Amino acid sequence: xxxxxxxxxxxxxxxxFGGNSREYFATNKTSYNxxxxxxxxxxxxxxxxxxxxxxxxxKRKQKAVADWLRANRPVNGRPATxxxxxxxxxxxxxxxxxxxxxxxxxxxxDLQVVLPNSGNDADExxxxx
Length: 129
Fold this sequence. Notes:
The protein has helices spanning about 10, 50-70, 80-95, 100-105; strands at about 15, 25, 35-40, 115, 125-129. The chain is α+β, with helices and mostly antiparallel strands.
């Protein structure tokens, strides 16, 4: 099977082919593999109460992760916090593609990020922001 190396324009693009299309494509940003999918059964009707609750919970988690990253990442000469460096070490340890995955892993029910004291999971206690 032939191997395709996407050009720079395609590397960052994902989504539908057109406005009324049911075909989607996505480019994995780390491996640059391109995936195609066709949606067969579209959702019919309004969202249920449970779906709305899950959406709301996801929105709150997204906001908590974004706020944590904004507070801890290096910006304009300000160095990264110790918590961010630990999260980065855990990202490499777990071979995650994004630091967001680490933050979600250590996000508790109170929407607080509780990281281990170092990049080693065996450490007791926690470090958060």
